[in-house]
Amino acid sequence: MTHGEKTLVLIKPDAIQRGLIGEIITRFEKVGLKLVGAKMVEPSKDHYFHHYENIGKMVSRRGQKAFDVTLDMMQMGPVLALVLTGVEAVALVRKMVGATEPKSAVPGTIRGDYSHMSFGHADANDVGIPNLVHASGDTTEAAAEIAHWFSEAELFDGYETVHEKFTQTRKK
């Protein structure tokens, strides 16, 4: 059994349409995160509204326009929803994903390696930011997002990965 925290990752329509699913999941697995849930879905606008506003408070943080273009972009195709677990998984995934604005994401991060658009360009053209991945912001948000996207029956934590053998607390 794992002794780590869980986080939600959404591989967004732009990443799926570009064929980056395998590359993105490989990065998470190589660092030692454990995949405990995965499903491809095409959620309704209401589902996204709950995710981005009821949980993420996007309207109050970024404004109605940013919220609207994000919802439009997320509905351009299916997403692959993932639950990953590991030591400090939320912070680790956020570091690996990179800054929300692709232009600001450093090389070596998912966004830094595979996207480049700026907020200014997106705003000037009334489009959402194709930034490939959503990652939970903190552990409270992660718990709410996971409960929104997955039932307990869809999570499979009962297997051990080789990485867990090196990250478990060992009693002497």
Name its key features.
172 residues, alpha+beta, Alpha-Beta Plaits, 4-stranded antiparallel sheet, 4 strands, globular
CATH secondary-structure class: Alpha Beta
Shape: globular
Overall tally of domains = 1
**Architecture, CATH level 2?**
2-Layer Sandwich
Indicate the mean pLDDT: 92
Strand content: 15-25%
What does this structure look like?
This protein has a four-stranded antiparallel β-sheet. It has helices at 13-17, 21-30, 45-55, 58-62, 64-74, 89-97, 110-114, 119-124, 139-149, 164-167; strands at 5-11, 34-41, 79-86, 133-135. The protein contains ten helices and four strands. It is 45% helix and 15% strand. The protein is of the alpha+beta class. The two termini are 19 Å apart. The model has no long low-confidence stretch (mean pLDDT 92). It has a single domain (5-43, 78-167), classed as Alpha-Beta Plaits.
